[in-house]
Predict the structure.
Amino acid sequence: MSYYFKTEKYDKDFLSENMMGPNPMLIVEELTQNVTLKKGMRVLDLGCGKGLSSIFLAEKFGVQVFAVDLWVSATDNLKRFKQMEIDDLIIPIHSDALKLPFADGYFDAVISVDAYHYFGNNDHYFDEKLKPILKKGAIVALAFPGMKYEVHDAVPVEMMPYWEEEALEMWHSIDWWKPKFEKSLSDFHIKEMQCFDKAWNDWLSTENPYAIEDRAMINADGGRYMNIIGLIGKLI
């Protein structure tokens, strides 16, 4: 079964202009392949960037999406949502993930694509910051860059020019991430995502300066070390 039945409809120029990393629409599509989201649900898109994942969630599922990001303004995202004629379902919010302005038990689901590793790569964020604003039984679906295995004690020589120490602190393996969620989530699944190559190729084909810089890194990696990790579950 293809994971890319929906994202092909979007204008390639629109996607290229608004990607901030590996194609988030491909990632969120695969991530939610086995997730049940229904109209009327309140969904937090945490670290939404320029809102591509929010657009996908609203269009495919008809849910009310709260598109939260620290680095992209709510005004800029609203313009994109209006451009896609989906602004009636998406509420853009400019906020820090460490200071989320929501009531306890507010959301039916949280989705996060290529963002959670920035603020959640520790033993306390999920329990202290995220869990309180989720309903019991809320869907949790997260995707973030990772490693096939822990490399921190023996960084491959060929990757040293590309992997900054700050980045390595956020990139970990499935075995590292799994204990941070398995006690809090039922129906818990964590795996290496299939869309890695296509999502990265879409990003690297843009003329974004950061994408141009990333080309050498992905070439040096050659599929040996990096991956995209996806996890889903329901809050216990």
